[in-house]
Design a protein that fits this description.
It is a single chain. The longest helix has 18 residues. Strand 2, helix 2 and strand 3 form a beta-alpha-beta unit. The protein is α/β, with parallel strands linked by helices and 188 residues long. The protein is globular. The structure holds guanosine-5'-monophosphate.
Length: 188
C-alpha cells in the first residue's frame, strides 16, 4: 500500500501563500518590527517557506519543546531551547506546524508571556487538527483545519525524528512504519 498524501507540495505552496497574504495585509503600513518565532523542529519547513513570502521587516528566533514519542503525544512538555531575542514589549508571532491537543502551544504561550512580557502574542499554525484538543486554544492564523485524527509525516512532521525532509505531508502506512522501525533499530 502506498502512503496517503494529505497535502502535496503544490497544495502546501498555496496554503502558505494564503497565510503569507494575511500577514502581509496586517503589516501593510508597518510601524513596528515583529519577532517571528519558529517552534523547532517541526515548524522549520513551514517557517522557512512562510517568511520568504512575507514582504515586511521582521526579526526571527527559535524555540524548541518536545512532547511527542512515536505517534502520540506524551502530554509532558519540556523546553529544550529558549529564544535569544529581547521580545519584551514586542509583537510576537509563534509559528507552529500543528495544533493537536493544544498543550504545546498553551505551554509556549504561557511561558513566553510570563518570562518575557511581549506586547502581543499571535499564533500562526499550518495545520489545526481538531479531534484530540484538550485545552481551549485557537490559533489566530491557520493554514488548514483537519477534522479527522491522522498521524501525519513529512514537511517537518516526524516519526521518531525521521520523515521531516519530505516536501509533502502524508499518512504513513503500517508497512512504512515497520520499515522505519527496522531502520531506527539498526541506527541505535
Ligand atoms: P499538541 O501539544 O498540540 O498535542 O501537539 C503539538 C506537537 O505535537 C506538534 O508540534 C507536533 O510536533 C506534534 N504532533 C501533533 N500531531 C502530529 C502528527 O500528526 N504528526 C506528527 N509527526 N507530529 C504531530
Amino acid at each position: 500500500m502506498t502512503n496517503e498524501v494529505i497535502f502535496s507540495k503544490e497544495q502546501l505552496d498555496e496554503i502558505i501563500s494564503d497565510v503569507a497574504d494575511k500577514l502581509n495585509a496586517r503589516f501593510e503600513n508597518q510601524t513596528s518590527i515583529p519577532v517571528f518565532i519558529s517552534v523547532l523542529k517541526g515548524a522549520e519547513p513551514f517557517f522557512n517557506d512562510l517568511i520568504k513570502k512575507c514582504h515586511f521587516e521582521m526579526k526571527i528566533d527559535f524555540i524548541q519543546v518536545s512532547s511527542y514519542s512515536g505517534t502520540s503525544s506524551t502530554g509532558v512538555i519540556h523546553l529544550k531551547k529558549d529564544i535569544t531575542e529581547d521580545i519584551k514589549g514586542k509583537d510576537v508571532y509563534i509559528v507552529e506546524d500543528i495544533i493537536d491537543t493544544g498543550l504545546t502551544l498553551n505551554y509556549l504561550k504561557q511561558y513566553i508571556q510570563l518570562h518575557y512580557q511581549p506586547r502581543s502574542i499571535t499564533i500562526v499554525c499550518l495545520v489545526d487538527k481538531k479531534p484530540l484538543r484538550k485545552v481551549d486554544l485557537t490559533a489566530d492564523i491557520v493554514g488548514v483545519t483537519l477534522t479527522q485524527n491522522e498521524f501525519l509525516v513529512g514537511y517537518g512532521f516526524d516519526y521518531n525524528e525521521i520523515g521531516r525532509n519530505y516536501d509533502f505531508i502524508f499518512v504513513p502506512t503500517k508497512k512504512q512504519l515497520e520499515t522505519w522501525d527496522k531502520l531506527l533499530n539498526n541506527d541505535k
